[in-house]
């Protein structure tokens, strides 16, 4: 029996030793690979997918799998965190929203879930009176329109004119249809304090807080003529203060009209004590005072100077010298003009 140089009787040939070493290394590499491979789950907005990877960090893994992130997207754990077997990587994709703040509109992206969370994350501060729609608890959906109305208040002091009023008064010495300004009007002046509310810089409401009169307005006074003007058939122009449509009759100095004969006491004398004549008329003094100057349509100028037992109310009795005229007169409607002084 042969012996090796050491004198040992048991020895292993070189090929066998080499094969053993190769197998051992291969097995070790296999085990190393087995231990280096990781099972990783990715949740994108709630949708989960499983992956296998040998990458070391979250960022390397995402790059390997072609999972792209926008600048506003969020990933947890962060890109620099080392991967572990069984890890779940959560990705929240940012959604586009439309924000109008104080009248300025822009498109943004966010991963926040509610309007309030978005405003907080964006460092958008609301004033006590500001308005936001939809409300702070409203859920964010793609392209939702969020409108912030900036509300401010300011105390404003202004002067304003107080318009003068116009008053009219009758002038019985002026013809109807004519006017005369006897006092010009002047506007007054007031100092008014307002609370003005602005929305996005534009005035929305104003409330009067105080008002102080600096100068009182001066009324404009206009006199208005009340005299009627009538052109008679003879071409005269008469001015009157009032016109009445009256029931007219006629009388004379005869016994049939007055119940008196020549020689009787008061014959030919009116109630007012003047002799009767054409141009004298009898009236009810409650309607036309005695002594009033008149113009009677179809009769002419007259003086209310007499009364009669049957002349009550809106009646007038016209005196004529001729009994025949009286007999033919009957009962008529006549316009009676009360003349101006």
UniProtKB/TrEMBL annotation:
Residue ranges constituting the G5 domain according to the UniProt record: 148-228
Transmembrane segments: 12-36
PROSITE patterns found in the cross-reference section: G5
Domain of life: Bacteria
Pfam families: 3D (PF06725), DUF348 (PF03990), G5 (PF07501)
Keywords of the record: Membrane, Signal, Transmembrane, Transmembrane helix
A single GO cellular-component term on record: outer membrane
GO MF: hydrolase activity, hydrolyzing O-glycosyl compounds
GO biological process: peptidoglycan turnover
Listed InterPro entries: 3D_dom, DUF348, G5_dom, Resuscitation_pf_RpfB, RlpA-like_sf
PANTHER family in UniProt: CELL WALL-BINDING PROTEIN YOCH (PTHR39160), RESUSCITATION-PROMOTING FACTOR RPFB (PTHR39160:SF4)
Protein name listed in UniProt: DUF348 domain-containing protein
Organism: Calorimonas adulescens
Lineage: Bacteria, Bacillati, Bacillota, Clostridia, Thermoanaerobacterales
């Amino acid at each position: 029996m042969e012996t090796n140089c050491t004198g040992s009787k048991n020895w292993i040939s070189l090929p066998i030793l080499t094969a053993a070493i190769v197998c051992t290394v291969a097995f070790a590499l296999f085990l190393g690979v087995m231990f280096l491979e990781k099972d990783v789950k990715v949740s994108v907005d709630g949708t989960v997918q499983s992956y296998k990877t040998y990458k070391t960090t979250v960022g390397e893994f995402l790059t390997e799998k072609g999972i792209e992130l926008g600048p506003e997207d969020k990933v947890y754990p962060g890109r620099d965190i080392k991967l572990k077997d069984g890890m779940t990587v959560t990705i929240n994709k940012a959604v586009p929203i439309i924000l109008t703040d104080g009248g300025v509109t822009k498109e943004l992206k966010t991963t926040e879930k509610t309007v309030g969370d978005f405003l907080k994350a964006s460092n958008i501060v609301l004033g006590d009176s500001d308005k936001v729609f939809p409300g702070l608890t409203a859920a964010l959906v793609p392209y939702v329109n969020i409108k912030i109305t900036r509300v401010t208040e300011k105390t404003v002091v202004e002067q304003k004119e107080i318009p003068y009023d116009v008053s009219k008064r009758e002038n019985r010495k002026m013809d109807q249809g004519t006017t005369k300004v006897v006092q010009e009007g002047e506007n007054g002046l007031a100092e008014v304090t307002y609370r003005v509310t602005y929305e996005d810089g534009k005035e929305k409401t104003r409330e009067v807080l105080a008002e102080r009169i600096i100068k009182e307005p001066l009324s404009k006074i206009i006199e208005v003529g009340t005299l009627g003007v009538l052109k008679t058939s003879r071409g005269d122009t008469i001015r009157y203060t009032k016109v009445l449509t009256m029931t007219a009759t006629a009388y004379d100095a005869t016994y049939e009209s007055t119940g008196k004969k020549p020689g009787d006491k008061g014959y030919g004398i009116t109630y007012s004590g003047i002799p009767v004549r054409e141009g004298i008329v009898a009236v009810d003094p409650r309607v036309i005072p005695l002594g009033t100057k008149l113009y009677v349509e179809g009769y002419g100028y007259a003086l209310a100077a007499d009364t009669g037992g049957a002349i009550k109310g809106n009646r007038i009795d016209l005196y004529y010298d001729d009994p025949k005229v009286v007999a033919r007169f009957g009962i008529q409607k006549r316009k009676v003009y009360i003349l101006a002084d």
